[in-house]
Structure formats: C-alpha cells, structure tokens
Design goal:
The complex is a heterodimer of chains A (326) and B (270). With 326 residues, chain A is mainly α. Chain A is 67% helix and 5% strand. Chain A has a domain of 220 residues. A two-stranded antiparallel sheet of chain A has the order 1-6. A two-stranded antiparallel ribbon of chain A has the order 2-5. In chain A, helix 3 packs across helix 12 and helix 5 packs antiparallel against helix 10. Chain A is globular. With 270 residues, chain B is of the alpha/beta class. Chain B folds into 2 domains: 180 residues, P-loop containing nucleotide triphosphate hydrolases (Rossmann fold), CATH 3.40.50; 79 residues, no CATH class. In chain B, the strands form 2 sheets. Chain B has a 6-stranded mixed β-sheet, sandwiched between helices. A 4-stranded antiparallel β-sheet of chain B has the order 2-1-4-5, with helices on one face. In chain B, a hairpin with a 2-residue loop joins strand 1 and strand 2. The longest helix of chain B has 20 residues. The chains are: A mainly alpha (326), B alpha/beta (270).
C-alpha cells in the first residue's frame, strides 16, 4: 500500500486537465487577440508574478517577513547590465549567473539576521533594500552609473530570432513562470516544502521535532533571492534601461502586499494578486493620484473580511494509492 | 529491567537564571528500557532539566551523556537526530497542518533529500517519501488516531491533541521519549488510556522519561522516580520508596508544624 498527497477534490480539480488545457490555449493565443499595450501589461504582470512567487517562498511558505525583496531583484538586474555591457556575456547565460549572484547576496546578507522574528526582521530587510538602492545611486567603482543607471543593449536571441516585441517577451516571461510553477509545485509537497511550513507554523516545535530551522530559513531566503535575481535579467533585457528608481522600498511593499493579498503560501493567490496589483492601476489610470489610497483601503478591507487571502492555500490530504487501509 | 549502563545520565548539572539557581548540581540516570519519572512541586526546575536535556538551554556546568555521547553543545534538532524526542507541557502542534503532516515532521530528520533532489524528484527521494509515509502511518495507528489523519490539528479534541504530539515525537524513531506533563488536562479515563500508551511504548523497547504532576499516573507506571525541589534532587527510588520518604512528604505536604496542627485539629474534633 502506498500513500500519496492530493489536494482536496473540487470541480476545477476534477476537470483540471480541461481547465489547464484551455488556459494554455488562451494564454498562447492572447498576443493575437489583444493590442500590444495589453500584451505589455501582461509582460509586467508576469514579471511581478515571478517576483511574487519568489517572495512567496520567503513570506508565504516560511513566514519570514521580508519587505526588501527588490534589493535582490536589483542585484540581479545590475549584474546583468554590468556583465553584459562590459564583458559581453550572453544574456541566456546571465539568467543563472544573476540568479547565483543574488542568491549569494541573499545568503551572505541574511545569515546574521535570520534568527530575528517578525517585525524585527521586517525592519532589517527594509534597511537592506535602502542600503542596496543608495549604494547603486552612489555609483561604487563607477560600475552602476549612479542615478541614471545603466543601459542594456544586448537582446535575447533564440535560433536567430531576436526577442524584442511585447509578444516575444510575453512568451519568454510566461514560459519562465510555467517552469517555476512546476518546480515550486514539486517543492511544496516535498520534504523541503514541508519543513518550511513547519517553521512557519511553530519554529520552536519544528526545531524540537528535528528540523534544522536555520537551514530551512536560509535555504528559503537564498532560493527566493536567487529567483528574484534571475528575474532581474529578464527585466533588464525588457526595459533596456535600469536605474535605482525601479527598486524602491515602495515596490518592495507592493510585492509584499501581493503575497499577503493572494494568501500566504498560495501559488494561484500570488498570480491573482499580482494581476490585481498591476492591472487594476492600469484600469484606474484616471485616478492615479488616489492609487495608494485605494491600495491602503483594499488592504484594510481584506484584513477585516478575508485575512486568509484571495485564494487561500489548502492543505494536501492523504490518499491511498492502492485500496483502502482502514 | 535496570541495566548497568544508563541510556541517559546527567551528572552535576547546574543552570542559573540571573541570581536564581534553577538546577543545582543535579544527578540523574535513566535506565535503558525503563519508565523514569521526575516529580516535584511547581517551580522545582523540572522543565528546566527537560530543556537542558533537549538542547534548548545549555547547562552552566555538568555533563549530560546519552548512549555514550555528550549532548552538551548540540542544537535541539541535533538532539532529536541523536535519538531523544520530546513533547511540550503546553501543546505545540502545527495547528494549520493536517495530523498526517504533523506526524510526518518527525520523519524529517530521518530523511536526507535536499533542494535539488526534491525538485528533480529523484528515485532515492521517492523511496524516502514512501518510507516516511509508512512510518507516519504506523505512528498514527499506534496512537489510535489514524482515522483523523486528514483533519487539521486545530480541530482535534484535547485528548487527541496529546496523542498527536506523542505520535509526532515517536515518528522520529527515538531511543528515548521525553514527555513533559503528558497527563496535564486529561480526565481519569483519558489518563488511563495514556498510561496504557506509555506502557506499550516502553514494551516496544523505547525508554520513557516523563515529568508529571498526576501522582496516580506517576505511581502507576514508573519503574523509577526522582523527586526535585528547589533545583536539587531530594529523593530517588521505586514509587513505593519515594512515597514513604519523609523528605518527599515534607516537600509536598509541608513541615511537621502543620502535621501537629492537623493532629491537634483531629483531637479537638474528637
């Protein structure tokens, strides 16, 4: 007899193959159906999804409050810009390289602070975000170009085709999301993913049950930072100009809100919430000056009426693979 | 039942909190295959002894040896890996996870799959998962809560929560199971069932060390009892020996003055 985990049954899950198939067809056809403007919106939505998913590992799965995630995104984007412009390194190669650079930074920077709890960790990560941003403005070793930032002239090429139109980037970003979703799905129901959840639920009990909580936390931070860094490469290639303005504390806050709004630890929640955070302001362009006010209001309303998030994550239940063992 | 080499031994262990000497050159040995209890009035330092063993606190001086290796300096999760599992006085379950996942946590330290093995879902990772699942199932069945496996921990009744915590500790395949007041808050029938469970665990070859307030439980199941007061050990022996030790009676019932008063009161009633 073998046990395996399965999500609780629901209508969508019972017909998941049909829903996923329909979604993929719809997603693939989207650039043909809507204007370039909306395809571009979907590209930025996708970048936010990648960032949201990476932060969800830290905030959602392990419960570490990180409000400085843009620091790692910035490290990835600047690594790409510097290595691409100065040394002509291929952009495809720079995705893992930038990821490793940001992961390394995440590992080193969070080592001394990982034992901090809740709000204390939150404050230190805010400081981290500002430190990185201000360092970039100060133009250390004339590497970062100061407040003006850097230009990225290189482009992704695949079989001689240059990725430059909104539709090209749309496919690139959402393919990256699909790959990430596959990996995160595996992780969620593995030993590592469970260890993260145990630490989130009760760090002391987790430690006393034999889980190396420090390992679990550092691993989550390093992995989250690494994914954000790799996303930085795609962002740099898309924007062609990167400057410290893109990596402000405010952006980190919005990212944090995405994870909380979506539901901590919920992957579909992150996708939904990052869409809401990006697409809604585009729709509400006329009310741009009230945007933050509306965000604040939305957060308050959510915390009162739906503290578990838009799409709360549900626990997997056991299912007997062969016969019933009762 | 008692063998020459104890499974766990503490020698001259001390721990201060500021000016308070919570544990004062405390000696204890837990024989392999026994049920050993530590009792004492509130604030005697019992839970501190527990936390010293399980690595949550570090002793200021003294030695703790577990099956021939020193425990001092190990982190709590390393102590679990070495073979000591524990439960908490105030239950600490993973409230929002299912019972199955709660117990599966105990198997974490017996598995090795890392980040990449989990993403690639390697063969050894799969084999490990199957093993961990069947071990979890065994623990849930032994504690009689298999039917509750998909229930969230927070939805369980108090007695079942106690069982779940023991199951989680058992899932790490410990040599020594340490229980901090397992009968706390249980009614008579539930604590009878608990005694049965603890006996079964002992009979399966696992040594049990517990702190308990419920004298009925302590005297009912213990092979060996140690009594603590003000951080010191004041008595030790079989349940019968301890019960008749004047030092223990004094610690629990107060000094002789009261005894005299009681006698006087008795006489006056007559």
């Amino acid at each position: 007899m073998r046990l395996e985990f399965a999500k609780p049954a629901s209508f969508i899950r019972a017909h998941s193959a049909w829903f996923i198939g329909a979604l993929i067809v719809l997603a693939a056809a989207l650039p043909l159906l809507v204007s370039d403007y909306w395809v571009d919106v979907c590209v930025f939505w996708g970048i936010n999804v990648l960032l949201g998913l990476s932060l969800n590992i830290i905030v959602g799965e392990v419960g570490l409050f990180n409000m400085g995630h843009m620091a790692f995104f910035a490290i990835g984007a600047y690594t790409t810009a510097i290595l691409s412009e100065r040394f002509g390194v291929n952009l495809w190669l720079l995705i893992p390289v930038s990821g490793l650079a940001a992961a390394g930074a995440g590992y080193v920077l969070t080592g001394p602070i990982i034992h901090l709890r809740g709000d204390y960790l939150l404050m230190v990560t805010i400081g981290l975000n500002e430190m990185i941003r201000i360092s970039l403005i100060n133009n250390p070793f004339a590497l970062t170009g100061g407040p003006n930032g850097l230009i990225v002239m290189d482009q992704f090429r695949i079989f001689g085709h240059v990725i430059q139109s909104p539709a090209d980037f749309y496919y690139l970003v959402w393919a990256a999301i699909a790959l990430l979703l596959f990996c995160l799905g595996r992780l969620q129901r593995s030993r590592v993913g469970r260890a993260w959840n145990y630490v989130r639920e009760d760090p002391i009990a987790a430690e006393a049950t034999g889980i190396n909580t420090r390992w679990a936390k550092v691993l989550a931070f390093t992995l989250g930072a690494g994914i954000a860094g790799a996303t930085g490469t795609i962002f740099a290639a898309k924007m062609m100009v990167i400057s410290p303005d893109s990596f402000t504390f405010m952006e980190s806050v919005i990212l944090f809100c995405i994870v909380i709004l979506g539901g901590m630890g919920s992957i579909p929640g992150v996708i939904l919430a990052s869409g809401a955070m990006l697409v809604l302001p585009e729709l509400l362009r006329n009310f741009a000056q009230y945007r933050m006010l509306l965000f604040g209001l939305a957060m308050v309303v959510m915390m009162i009426f739906r503290p578990q998030g838009l799409w709360p994550s549900r626990r997997w239940t056991t299912r007997l693979k062969e016969g019933d063992g009762e | 039942m008692t063998q020459e080499t104890p499974l766990l031994s503490l020698s001259a262990v001390s721990r201060n909190f500021g000016g308070l000497r919570a544990v004062d050159s405390f000696d204890l040995s837990v024989a392999k295959g026994s049920i050993t209890s530590l009792i004492g009035p509130n604030g005697a330092g019992k839970t501190t002894v527990f936390n010293l063993i399980t690595g949550i606190y570090r002793p200021d001086s003294g030695k703790i040896t577990f099956s021939d290796s020193a425990l001092i300096g190990m982190l709590p999760h390393q102590v679990v890996e070495a073979g000591i599992a524990r439960t908490f006085q105030t239950l600490r379950l993973f409230e929002n996870l299912t019972c199955f996942e709660n117990v599966l946590a105990g198997q974490h330290c017996r598995c090795r799959a890392g980040l990449f093995a989990c993403i690639l879902n390697t063969r050894s990772c799969q084999a490990e998962e199957v093993r961990a699942h069947s071990e979890t199932e065994r623990c849930l069945r032994n504690l009689g809560i298999w039917h509750l496996r998909d229930e969230l921990a927070r939805n369980l009744s108090y007695g079942d929560r106690r069982r779940l915590e023991i199951a989680r500790a058992m899932a790490s395949r410990p040599k020594l199971l340490t229980l901090d007041e397992p009968a706390g808050g249980l009614n008579e029938r539930e604590s009878d069932e608990l005694m049965e469970v603890i006996r079964e665990i002992r009979d399966s070859g696992i040594t049990v060390f517990l702190i308990e307030h419920d004298m009925r439980v302590v005297m009912g199941i213990s092979d060996h009892v140690a009594v603590m007061e003000y951080g010191r050990k004041i008595s030790e022996g079989t349940p019968d020996e301890v019960q008749s030790d004047p030092a223990v009676i004094e610690a629990y019932l107060g000094i002789d003055d009261e005894e005299d008063e009681r006698k006087e009161a008795g006489e006056s009633v007559q």
